[in-house]
Amino acid sequence: MPAAPATAECADQSATTAPYATTRSSRPKRQWKAFLYLAPALLVLSTFILVPLAQGAWYSLYDWNGLSAGTWVGFGNYVDIATDRSLRAAFGHALVLILFFAVLPVLIALFLTAIMSRAPRLRALGFFRVVLFLPQVIASVVVATSWLAIYAPDGLLNQLLRLVGLDLATRAWLGDFSTALPAVGFVGSWVGVGLCLVLFLSGVGQIDPELFEAARLDGAGLFREFFSITLPELRGQITVALTLTVVAALKSFDLVYVTTRGGPGDATSVPSYLAYERAFQTNQVGSACAIGITLALIIIIVTVLISKLQPQES
After folding, report:
1. Total structural domains in the chain?
2. Distance between CA atoms of residues 298 and 160, nearest Å
3. Are residues 167 and 300 in the same domain?
């Protein structure tokens, strides 16, 4: 009779472990089903992004005009990017545009956020948000066409300067070598401020109001409150804003195409426009693909670096 308890104990253990065994055996099947749900998205991603990217990388290794047989040049097109002055200048212009498209909008939006967070009951606050965000919902071609008219020699900007007696400051803003690139960049700043402001204001709305009340009771001023509470809590929103605006600066095309076509000379040439010009105007498809691949790699690297600013979840 002493064996009976052992038998019962074994039966209990087998009954206890049976559900776990069933769970382990069925888990791979459930994981396989999860991949089936992802299959349509992966198919679209492969068809429209991964396959064209790989094909472009292959074309970049050839000297090819898009029609006849190409000539293998290896990494010659990439060497040209480092040695050709016009290509280096285009990537340099893209870096300058980052200041206008990303840095200035983020700084201006942070300044406005500091003021608006101090005055949450400011009248017509919703109206100002809509007005500042409006450039984001307007088509880029419409924005570029509007600013093209503003920057014209007889446009609104020069008329305002003449009105206040600054006739010597008037010029063809998009036709002057010294002002063309900053003029294009200023349009990017105008477009980007609204996006950054909306992101930052939404982030401020998620901060515990008791933190601001405690800071004000301690006598903290606007700057102390901003740098001690608001700015640290907005790291996530700043990361998103920088990612969107920096990528927009690096891949900017439509704004340059409509306003300057890379001119005067190559004063406003950017990688995206040069890739278009070489692919469809000068029949240098291999070189255009090399520019596109290089630009894509730069965007990936910059995006990864910016993501380091994202606060780590505890």
Report:
1. 2
2. 40
3. yes
